[in-house]
């Protein structure tokens, strides 16, 4: 009998207008927040690649050469062209604020369970701290730490023009051909 | 120029006449300076076993521009007279530190000038100390790609960028392995899938991704560097792994001999010479003074076969 009464009560309540049962609920977003954040990040990446391609069209094309001076000059010219086209760039332009919590969660998850020695090996030969700025040239004297393959698969895919890299405890987005730091997130790599 | 450095070439000739071992490192980064590194120790390089075989050398972690690199380079040139290899695989860390034009000269062109002058081709893979734009340096024969493949006789080589094994590279590797009908499939890259090194050890993330492909598609041998010593691993899932990252750097005493190690050498610099004739691969590993520290023969494997019992002989 109790059960029947309860059921009738629920049915009665469900037929009432929303305003009659309590304060208004926030509408459920049509697109989940994580998905929207990843899509927004990917759009920023696509915008960057468009700019990268425009910059590439302004510098001499690079083909195989036995003159390393040409490789270095082309790398520097491309980096400079990109800097000029994004003179107002600032950290967080691509690793946008709404994407960063998701990114940090992925990194935390990716590093969880890795032995301490494994984590240390990732940043071997790297400085404990490194001054970072948007569109700086990645210092040639600092090795490019190997990016763990499994972790890479958990992050949103990047086009070949860009790659994720870890420098010290920071995650950077690196333009491969221009050898510049496009964006970064400080202290993204968990220490514990 | 001091009186000592001015007279170094003459001093070298006198010492050479006396049969001494002497590296000369004037400490200069000049691209035009002649480097001399000669050893009077007997060279234990073995000659090839067959005509028309595929012959190559394997060097890892080379790009220091230092004395050891030049000495190994000189020894490699000596070996070529006995064992005429036609190309060289570079296992990454081709240039440590800066990559200015003079660095390419000091860390690659000068140490290997004797063999470059003989028309020997190099095929490079990228290490963690390498700017990926090295792929545009023609003497590395990378065709402008971070990962690539090439064929010599009945051998298909797969050069991987183990620093950044993304989905694109994985898909490319699977496709190229599947499409290859070569009898021999050999992979080379910087990070070892298996290693007994105390400093680094096995690269398990990379292994989880590429090893299933190697097994499925019949890769017989894998060459890697990164660890600054020589190690021949016991066959893993039927595949023979060699770590060979001591052509310029050395981490003495770093091998923790254990279940993985078939043969280790971590007391001097080293390089490998390899010959493939029919179903057999013959290898020899030589130290900087020219002593043969390992050698043996491997039988080709086909997809999904276990060659762990197929070791013909080890010396």
What keywords describe this structure?
heterodimer; A: 192 residues; mainly alpha; three-stranded antiparallel beta sheet; 42% helix; 9% strand; globular; disordered N terminus; B: 315 residues; alpha/beta; Purple Acid Phosphatase, chain A, domain 2; seven-stranded mixed beta sheet; 7 helices; 16 strands; 25% strand
What does this structure look like?
The complex is a heterodimer of chains A (192) and B (315). Chain A has helices at residues 2-14, 33-56, 68-85, 100-111, 116-122, 149-154, and strands at residues 162-167, 170-175, 180-185. Chain A is mainly α. Chain A has one domain (33-185). In chain A, a hairpin with a 4-residue loop joins β2 (170-175) and β3. Chain A has a three-stranded antiparallel beta sheet, with no helix packed on it. With 315 residues, chain B is an alpha/beta fold. Chain B has one domain (41-314): 4-Layer Sandwich (Purple Acid Phosphatase, chain A, domain 2). Chain B is built from seven helices and 16 strands. In chain B, α6 runs parallel beside α7 (204-216).
Structurally, how many domains make up the residues of chain A?
1
Q: What proportion of the residues of chain A form beta strands (DSSP E)?
A: 5-15%
Proportion of helical residues of chain A: 40-55%
Low-confidence stretches of chain A: 1-21
Shape of chain A: globular
What's the structural blueprint in terms of helices and strands?
The complex is a heterodimer of chains A (192) and B (315).
Chain A: H1 2-14, H2 33-56, H3 68-85, H4 100-111, H5 116-122, H6 149-154, E1 162-167, E2 170-175, E3 180-185
Antiparallel strand pairs in A: 1-2, 2-3
Chain B: H1 3-6, H2 8-17, E1 22-23, E2 37-38, E3 54-59, H3 67-82, E4 87-90, H4 101-109, H5 113-116, E5 121-124, E6 148-152, E7 155-159, H6 167-179, E8 184-189, H7 204-216, E9 221-224, E10 230-233, E11 240-244, E12 261-265, E13 270-277, E14 280-287, E15 292-299, E16 313-314
Parallel strand pairs in B: 3-4, 4-5, 7-8, 8-9, 9-11
Antiparallel strand pairs in B: 1-2, 3-13, 6-7, 10-11, 10-12, 13-14, 14-15, 15-16
């Amino acid at each position: 009998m109790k059960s029947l009464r309860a059921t009738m009560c629920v049915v009665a309540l469900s037929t009432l207008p929303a305003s009659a049962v309590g304060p208004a609920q926030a509408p459920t977003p049509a697109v989940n927040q994580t998905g929207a954040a990843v899509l927004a990040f990917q759009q920023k990446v696509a915008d960057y690649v468009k700019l990268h391609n425009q910059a590439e069209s302004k510098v001499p094309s690079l083909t195989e050469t036995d003159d390393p001076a040409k490789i270095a000059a082309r790398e520097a010219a491309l980096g400079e062209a990109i800097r000029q086209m994004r003179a107002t760039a600032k950290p967080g332009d691509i690793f946008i604020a709404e994407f960063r919590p998701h990114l940090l969660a992925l990194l935390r998850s990716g590093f969880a369970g890795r032995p301490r020695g494994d984590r240390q090996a990732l940043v071997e030969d790297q400085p404990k701290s490194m001054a970072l700025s948007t569109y700086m040239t990645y210092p040639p004297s600092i090795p490019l730490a190997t990016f763990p393959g499994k972790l890479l698969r958990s992050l949103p895919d990047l086009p070949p023009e860009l790659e994720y890299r870890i420098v010290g405890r920071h995650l950077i987005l690196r333009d491969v051909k221009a050898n510049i730091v496009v964006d970064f997130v400080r202290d993204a790599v968990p220490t514990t | 120029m001091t009186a000592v450095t001015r007279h170094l070439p003459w001093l070298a000739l006198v010492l050479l006449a006396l049969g001494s071992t002497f590296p000369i490192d004037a400490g200069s980064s000049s691209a035009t300076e002649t480097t001399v590194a000669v050893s009077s120790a007997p060279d234990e390089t073995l000659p090839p076993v067959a005509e028309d075989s595929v012959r190559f050398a394997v060097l890892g972690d080379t790009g220091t521009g230092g004395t050891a690199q030049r000495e190994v380079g000189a020894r490699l040139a000596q070996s070529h007279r006995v064992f005429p290899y036609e190309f060289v695989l570079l296992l990454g860390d081709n240039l440590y530190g800066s990559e200015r034009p003079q660095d390419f000269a000091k860390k690659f062109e000068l140490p290997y000038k004797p063999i470059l002058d003989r028309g020997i081709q190099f095929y490079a893979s990228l290490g963690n100390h390498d700017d990926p734009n090295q792929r545009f340096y023609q003497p590395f024969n990378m065709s402008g790609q971070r990962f690539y493949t090439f064929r010599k006789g009945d051998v298909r080589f797969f050069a991987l960028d183990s620093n950044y094994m993304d989905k694109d590279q994985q898909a490319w590797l699977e496709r190229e392995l599947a499409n290859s009908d070569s009898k021999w499939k050999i992979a080379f890259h910087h990070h070892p899938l298996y290693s007994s090194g105390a400093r680094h050890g096995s690269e398990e993330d990379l292994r989880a991704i590429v090893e299933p492909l190697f097994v499925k598609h019949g890769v017989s041998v894998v060459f890697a560097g990164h660890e600054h010593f020589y190690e021949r691993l016991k066959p893993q899932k039927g595949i023979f792994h060699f770590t060979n990252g001591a052509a310029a750097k050395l981490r003495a005493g770093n091998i923790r001999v254990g279940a993985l190690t078939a043969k280790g050498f971590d007391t001097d610099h080293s390089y490998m010479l390899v010959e493939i004739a029919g179903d057999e691969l013959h290898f020899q590993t030589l130290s900087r003074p020219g002593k043969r520290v390992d050698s043996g023969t491997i039988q080709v494997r086909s997809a999904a076969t276990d060659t762990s019992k197929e070791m013909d002989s080890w010396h």
